[in-house]
Amino acid sequence: MNLSSAIFECSAPDLAACPDESLPEFAFIGRSNVGKSSLLNTLAGVERLARVSPTPGFTKLINFFSMGKTWRLVDLPGYGYAEGSRKHVSQFNRAAANYLKHRPNLCCIFLLVDSGLEPQPIDLEFVQWLARHALPFVIVFTKTDRGTPEQIQTNITAFTERIAGWFTQLPEIFQCSSATGHGRSELLGVIGKIVDAGPAATEPVSPPAPLPPEIEPPFSLKVHASRVREKDATAKKKLKAARPW
Ligand SMILES: Nc1nc2c(ncn2[C@@H]2O[C@H](COP(=O)(O)OP(=O)(O)OP(=O)(O)O)[C@@H](O)[C@H]2O)c(=O)[nH]1
Ligand SMILES: [Mg+2]
Question: If you measure from the C-alpha of residue 36 to the centroid of ligand 1, how many angstroms do you get, rounded to a whole number?
Answer without folding.
Answer: 7
